[in-house]
Amino acid sequence: MNAWVFGDDVDTDAIAPGRYLKFDIGEIARHSMETLDPDFSSRVRKGDIVVAGRNFGAGSSREQAPAALKHLGISALVAESFAGLFYRNALNLGLPAVACAEVKKIRAGDRVRVDAERGRIENLTTGETLACETIPAHLMQMVRDGGLLAHLEKRLARAP
Amino acid sequence: MNAWVFGDDVDTDAIAPGRYLKFDIGEIARHSMETLDPDFSSRVRKGDIVVAGRNFGAGSSREQAPAALKHLGISALVAESFAGLFYRNALNLGLPAVACAEVKKIRAGDRVRVDAERGRIENLTTGETLACETIPAHLMQMVRDGGLLAHLEKRLARAP
Fold first, then answer.
1. DSSP output for A62-91
2. Interface test with B, best of A55, A81, A85 (most B CBs within 10 A)
3. Residue A31 in contact with residue A69, Cβ under 8 Å?
4. pLDDT, tens digit, for every residue of A60-107?
5. Which residue, B2, B76, B77, B151, has fewest beta-carbon neighbours within 10 Å?
6. CA-based nearest residue to B59, from B21, B95, B116, B102
């Protein structure tokens, strides 16, 4: 649950570089964020959090952007704001994204725990609790099911 | 297709005021935006466009916010940026929302035509064409079908 901190306007071409889109998600993920931090994909650990400023995920609506971060084991995204299409894709793929006005209180390497349903982020390194946007329970259920498709499959399987 | 122009950080409580949420969508819609423009709901016409600045739809994720604008006949939302949950709800209800960096080139009452699939907005009053975010074709199909539920019903009805 270590925080990887980026700035404003990180676009989908930084998250999933265009010249690797023809390869599989493992290869795309290996190059994720490399223009901003060449060590990111090799050092990130399962459960880590990506933290960013305004307009995270701007640019093209390529689904490989949230898919690459999920593939690397990122457990949540926290940003001052998100581009709408990226936000939509992230949740549909089962990757929670929460808007947080106080995002600058998280520094690179801080250990953080995100509770999107309660709308709060604990910074275990500084001891602070930050308020963030609340994701409604029904949407978090979709996220926990692994995204929209897995959620619909589960619900349709249960239908009479 | 007249533009109704609002500022930054218009929240869902302005769009669908909390004290009317217990009533039906018609009553909620009658009070939409009244704290910002008391004439909005009585003067807006079918096909009109809502234009706003940053972070449109911030605050609670109440679905009544995009539903009220749709009920009033609003055909598209154009903003510098949207709150993620509001953006998601709007598209799921069949109301297209497009991010546009040049939104300040649209003035109240301008006649505008939004082409979300091509990523452009024509301001028929000034003759300018503005670039906006492109909504992918598969997502616009969902919007045109009337939103996520209608889209899924149509697709499931077609399934073997």
1. -THHHHHHHHTT--EEEES-B-HHHHHHHH
2. A85
3. no
4. 999 999 999 999 999 999 999 999 999 999 999 999 999 999 999 999
5. B2
6. B21
DSSP strand E in chain A: where? 3-5, 49-52, 76-79, 97-99, 112-115, 120-123, 128-131
- Please give the Cα distance from B99 to B102 (Å, whole number): 9
Mean pLDDT, rounded, for B38-61: 96
Structure tokens at B54: 């940053």
Tell me which residue of B103, B112, B74 sits closest to B90, measured CA to CA.
Answer: B74
Which among A84, A136, A152 is the nearest to B84, CB-wise?
A84
Structural element, H or E, at residue B120? strand B120-123
Residue A16 near residue A64 (C-beta atoms within 8 A): yes
Task: Tell me whether residues B99 and A81 touch, CB distance under 8 A.
Answer: no
pTM: 0.88
If 0-12 CB within 10 Å is exposed, 13-18 middle and 19+ buried, where does residue B33 land? buried
For B71-127, the pLDDT digits (tens) are 999 999 999 999 999 999 999 999 999 999 999 999 999 999 999 999 999 999 999
Is the Cβ–Cβ distance between B11 and B58 less than 8 Å?
A: yes
> Which of B61, B87, B152 comes nearest A84 by C-beta?
B87
**CB < 8 Å & 24+ apart, contacts of B34-40:** B36/B6, B36/B10, B37/B4, B37/B6, B40/B4
**Count of CB atoms within 10 A of residue B67's CB?**
22
